[in-house]
Amino acid sequence: MGEKIxxxxxxxxQLFINNEFVNSVSGKTFATSNPCNGxxxxxxxxxxxxxxxKAVIAAxxxxxxxxxxxxxxxxxxxxxxxxxxxxIERDYKYLVALESLDCGKPYSLALLDVEHxxxxxxxxxxxxxxxxxxTIPCDGNFFCYTKQEPVGVCGQIIPWNFPLVLLAWKxxxxxxxxxxxxxKPAEDTPLSALYVAALTKEAGFPAGVINVxxxxxxxxxxxxxxxxxxxxxxxxxxxxVGRKVMSEAANSNLKRVTLELGGKSPLIIFKxxxxxxxxxxxxxxxxxxxxxxxxxxxxxxxxxxxxDEFVKRAVKAVESRVIEDVMTxxxxxxxxxxxxxxxxVLSYIEAGKKEGAKLETGGARHxxxxxxxxxxxxxxxxxxxxxxxxxxxxxVQCIIKFKTLDEVVKRANDTSYGLSAGCLTNDLNTALTLAxxxxxxxxxxxxxxxxxxxxxxxxxxxxxFGKELGEEAIxxxxxxxxxxxxxxxxx
Length: 491
Description:
The structure is a single chain. The protein has 491 residues and is α/β, with parallel strands linked by helices. It is built from 16 helices and 22 strands. The chain has helices spanning 49-63, 68-71, 74-90, 92-103, 107-125, 163-177, 191-203, 217-226, 239-252, 275-287, 307-318, 339-354, 386-389, 405-413, 428-437, 470-476; strands at 15-17, 20-22, 29-33, 40-45, 135-136, 142-150, 153-157, 180-184, 210-212, 232-236, 256-260, 266-269, 299-303, 358-361, 376-379, 396-402, 417-418, 420-424, 442-445, 460-461, 464-465, 478-486. The strands form six sheets. The chain has a seven-stranded mixed β-sheet with strand order 14-15-16-13-12-18-19, with helices on both faces. Strands 9-8-7-10-11-21 form a six-stranded mixed β-sheet, with helices on both faces. β10, α9 (239-252) and β11 (256-260) form a beta-alpha-beta unit. α1 packs parallel to α8 (217-226).
């Protein structure tokens, strides 16, 4: 066992509205718990529709013409984002410990998350004074130009698997564009969002620009999606809930929607790939954060020439993973987030066995407390099995045999999802062919999910629409205004 990290002090458990921490209107609270042992970490104020109303008023006031936020130079917005990044860097040890505790995420992975969000905020800080329109040589005696203007008040709803990362992805682009926002973190993991909210006040963001409402999806989340005072909603989560968000947005005020939803992403391994590299890449793709990743490589296609040897090496590699309390520096594999997810994953493992897949390793609970499931590998998986079709969201690797490139492309694309895809090969022609043919918003060649702030991320098909990160994320929070000025004649 590595170094044991001390439990962080819980500093904020209230709603954050208009730069102040306040109790919910109802006075209700809910518990957030440690997935490693199921014990309560803290009671958190439970926001609902009444609290969303208060946050919308604050955000609308902050976005009003003449407000402190609207009067800032674009470069000044960038300096605020950079100041926030600096504060996160200052407090990174605390944030890593808080994220690891609340999410049940191995400390080493939580550290990577915090390092990543610092880069994200700094990247978008640089975008603030580079958002611009065009001049257009249109017909007639007119001077024509366009402006990219902020959408306005934005609602943002994030899941429990990457609380800090998805907060940063959504806040950074929205704030760079000049929007104001209301964030609902997942009820399982509200603590890190509240701490970063406190840092935004310290950084100097004007009151009302950033608001955080912990609560449940059926109440606070629904209120955000349906609120007529919100101009855009960005949601990350399941496809089923994404449909509800889209419906609420349409039935209220036709607000703009960005959805980053589920996936069943294929990782295709060809016979010319380095087997050891392929095994490690495929395990990282599915086992990272216990498989609780929307873009997990949850279908591992392996060419038949190397299939048996790949399975043998994959089993050996996964059985060496360190399973222990996430608040240790050597932990590689932690628990599922809660009992519901724990039972869901185990039910899919049972389904895989019943449907005829071969359980190579794992497939059972680890330990006698918390929600730990042993890393699991199935071989002899066929496309019609539920473990090959459904998003399990757990540490279950499904290794599927294929023969030819044409065959595997057709099978890889035969899904309602299209979040990501990838391949491992030393053949450039194969790599480029797959990059063109695979139906995924991101295609990764000889790697998996190298998250970088500059590269857009978002899905195809029922994995959603709209992009986060990169220049495309800015476009998601701006709207184009066209201005035509009549002139006495051509200049």
